[in-house]
Amino acid sequence: MLKITPVLIGLIAVSSQIVTVGAQTVAATPSPAIPMPPDKIDTYQFYSRLIPVGESANEGWPHGQFLVEDTTVQMVPSDKPCIPDHPNGKRDYTNMLNPHDAVTPPDGDREDYNEILADFDKHCHDRAQLDPSAWALSAPFRAPIHLLNKDQQGEFQRSRFGSNPNDPENKVLTEKYKGAPGLYTFSEVYFNARHTVALVYAGVWCGGLCGQWRWNTFRLIEGQWKPIRWNSTVTMS
Fold first, then answer.
1. DSSP characters for the chain?
2. Keywords in UniProt for this one (predicted)?
3. Angle CA(133)–CA(160)–CA(57) in degrees, nearest 5?
């Protein structure tokens, strides 16, 4: 069973990408959290590079602290296959959490993409516990990282929806999460066989109809991970 936040869902074609307007779809009952798989311990460098992400990186946004969900997103519900069923032979571009549907590489990167999908298929039901000490943010975004559990995520959401400024809880939560641009979400990072191309899902919820999620691709070039462009479904709310 899937849970979809009840907001308007639509599709917009933008520069050969698909933009879904709404919110991400997540497993209603996620799997228990596991330690980060040993072959993915180095993935915090990608998470650190993607904070802040989207419009929350823009000048004028607060960057006093960064809030992150304390586990990676479970990309596929436990009772669903990692490889989506396409009875009509067409991709479902609204299936944004699954790179089988949501990501399209250039023709020259097809082999790397297929290897990354194989890695995804091994881990699509994972929900990995994140380590608060493993992040290394770069200037000018060096600020504390706080991993939020489900209760704390709910607190932050209430702080953004608080309509009564005189409500005692709203005052406390607003102060507690002051300086945070939003709540960040990450998948595990999926690699090709040579560990030279990486794909990671990342996004931020910043309140109400404010948020952005997409797949991000990196290639190892002369010892440095550089962002590269693969077409991806982008969700905005």
1. -EEE-SS--EEEEETTEEEEES--EEESSPPPPBPPPGGGGGGHHHHHHTSS-GGGGSTTS--S-EEEESB----S-TTS-SS---TTS---TT-TT-HHHHEE--GGGHHHHHHHHHHHHHHTT--BBP-TTS--PPTT----EEEE-HHHHHHHHHHHH---TT-HHHHHHHHHTTT---EEEEEEEEE-TTS-EEEEEEEEE-SSS-EEEEEEEEEEETTEEEEE--EE-EEE-
2. Signal
3. 55
For the record, the structure tokens of 230 come out as 């693969």
